[in-house]
């Protein structure tokens, strides 16, 4: 009896070991193909291709499985899962194969995530037209198109450099030393250094542009947008690519807002505006109309 029990135990151990080796030897590559397909490329053929052999769920809600309606076989042993739920390239999914037992986390494409963050910051969550930040510089330099364009390029450059410097400062200095409560002071110092450097460079290289900017170049130091981006990155514990994408998208969004507003205000100068609306009042009306237009981007999803 003892010999029989030992042999049974040894057989069970060998069976488990073989199953583990099979699981380790079988690898899969998963590609999400919106709107309703998932392509699986296994290193070894998967025998069972029934919908019950696969489970797909969003990483944010792993307990709620997405219904798999059909499984198709593709060339070279590929398997295509069709689901009634709508899929997106920017979401993270959990894929489970029951036989052989395989679990994989399907992460979104890095390029798609970066482009989505840039476009979302520039259009969907535009800091000027949806969050109403940075209005002082926005109304001050949007009277002429050339000045607004130059300020948009300058602001984007300052936004990207200060965003990345602030990320480095927070990640490698403030976070390890537990100095997060000094974020605002530290970020203002970084922005002030970059703006002062830019002010000196413009004064030496392009005095005409420096005079057109006037006091608004210095006001970049306390601009709400230039401070909001590092604070948002720190609050979300974003990585370097995510921080760069948010900074670049925010700069593009502010430059776009300045360009559109300057074009509209140049047209308004040729129109017959009532005396009570001339100057800043009509500028606020235009900004409100642009804000209503940008609300059309709400809920827009890219790369579906």
Gyration radius (Cα, Å) is 28 Å
Reported for the largest beta sheet, the result is: 4 strands, antiparallel
Overall geometry comes to elongated
Sheet-strand content, in percent, reads 5-15%
Number of helices: 10
Helix/strand order, N-terminal first: HEEEEEEEEHHHHHHHHH
Helix content: 40-55%
Strand order of the largest sheet: 1-2-6-5
Rounded mean pLDDT score: 84
**Uncertain regions spanning at least 5 consecutive residues:** 9-24
Task: Report what the structure shows.
This protein is of the alpha+beta class. Residues about 10-25 have low confidence and may be disordered. Helix 4 (about 145-175) packs across helix 5 (about 185-205) and helix 5 (about 185-205) packs across helix 8. It has helices at about 1-25, 110-125, 135-140, 145-175, 185-205, 205-215, 215-220, 225-235, 240-270, 280-295; strands at about 30-35, 35-40, 55-60, 65, 70-75, 80-85, 95, 100-105. About 25% of the residues are buried. The chain is about 55% helix and about 15% strand.
């Amino acid at each position: 009896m003892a010999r029989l029990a030992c042999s049974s135990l040894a057989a069970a151990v060998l069976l488990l070991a073989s199953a583990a080796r099979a699981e380790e030897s079988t690898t899969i590559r998963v590609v999400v193909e919106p709107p309703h397909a998932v392509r699986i490329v296994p290193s070894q053929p998967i025998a069972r291709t029934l919908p019950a052999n696969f489970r797909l769920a969003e990483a944010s809600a792993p307990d709620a499985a997405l219904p798999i309606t059909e499984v198709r076989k593709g060339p070279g042993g590929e398997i295509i899962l069709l689901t009634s739920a709508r899929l997106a390239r920017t979401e993270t999914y959990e894929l489970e194969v029951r036989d052989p037992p395989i679990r994989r986390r399907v992460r979104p494409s890095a390029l798609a995530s970066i482009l989505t963050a840039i476009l979302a910051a520039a259009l969907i969550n535009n800091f000027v037209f949806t969050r109403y930040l940075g209005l002082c510089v926005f109304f001050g330099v949007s009277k002429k198109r050339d000045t607004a364009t130059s300020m948009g390029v300058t602001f984007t450059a300052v936004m990207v450099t200060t965003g990345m410097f602030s990320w480095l400062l927070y990640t490698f200095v403030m976070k390890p030393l537990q100095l997060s409560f000094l974020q605002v002071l530290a970020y203002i110092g970084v922005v002030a250094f970059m703006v002062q450097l830019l002010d000196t460079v413009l004064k030496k290289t392009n005095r005409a542009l420096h005079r057109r900017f006037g006091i608004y170049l210095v006001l970049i130091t306390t601009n709400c947008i230039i401070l909001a981006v590092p604070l948002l990155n720190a609050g979300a514990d974003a990585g370097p690519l995510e921080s760069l994408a948010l900074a670049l998208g925010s700069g593009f969004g502010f430059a776009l807002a300045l360009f559109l507003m300057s074009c509209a205000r140049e047209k308004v100068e040729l129109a017959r505006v009532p005396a009570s609306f001339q100057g800043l009042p009509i500028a606020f009306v235009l900004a409100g109309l642009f804000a209503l237009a940008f609300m059309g981007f709400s809920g827009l999803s890219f790369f579906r």
